[in-house]
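thread: overnight batch results

M.L. [08:02]
morning all. the overnight job finished for the chain we discussed friday. pasting input first so we're all looking at the same thing
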Amino acid sequence: MNYIFADLETSGASTSHDSILEAFFMLTNDSFQELDRLYLRMRLKEGVVPNLNALLINRSTVNLLKNSNMSWFQAVSIMESTLRKWGPAIYWTYGGVNFDYEFLRKTWFKALKEPYLTNTNGSKQGDVLHVIRAAKLVKDDIIKTPISAKGNPVFKLSTLMQHKDAHGAEADTMQTKKLAELIAKKANPIWKSSLMSTSKFDTMELIKSEKKFCSTEYFYGKLRAFFTYYFGIEHPVYHGWILTWDMQWDPADYIKMDKDSLKKALSKSPKVLRTIRCNKAPIILNSSYATNMEPYSKISPEIYKKRMKILDQSNDFKERIVNIVQEKAEEREKDDPLT
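M.L. [08:03]
and the structure it wrote out:
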């Protein structure tokens, strides 16, 4: 399947209220050879008040905002028709799972276009940021990264690649493609694994078929790998979220708890349950990547098999977990109906 690398520069960080100012898309084959490209620079959408900090970052002047040759609607229409012509592909952005894809979806909705162009009709979407983080975790020498004051690797594209014209749509797209090529060359198993989770359906099927796997997460500035096990539970409220058990914890210590005690235990950190958001291009790896790392390497395979058997056979335990997770989600939505 072909790839489409993309980047947006916008009037601000709100995917709901801000406007695309600049967009760049590059179509390649699966060997990263360029087939076509599209660059769009558009006027600020009428009624949108731009964020000054965003304009300073992407170097958008008042003249560009007001006098670009192309209107917002013209540009959005060309964007949509071109991507349709390019056909089904895997879209790649850098940090786009929580920004670029959402921005595109809401932009097309406002323009009365099909909003789910990047993840329907055969198209899928990935995030190179997720992939390079996972690759760095299992192969530290894949790329040199700046180090933060707390000693953690920094994955901001402009500092990672140190390229000219950073925060320009074309320059950032080119560097995203370059980074993807690097991963495919130096950490090909990680790249291949990332291709298997570029759609919600594919990710759910992968988890259900593998059951035990290594999931990677990034929070508080740190990269982490977890040996997790799928024991038949999906989130009862949020479709496409799968609940897995962190195998460093013995389920026998939790299975006899009453509901209130279990609810408190599941809320404590570190978390016993790991949630996989299948629509967010998670990285799912072979379980050996995690079991070769501490604390998992200190636990024997026989103990893991015993824990998996307990989880598989404890239907009442699963039901209590589902009820607790559902109540928690409903409480959250009640407190914040916009969540």
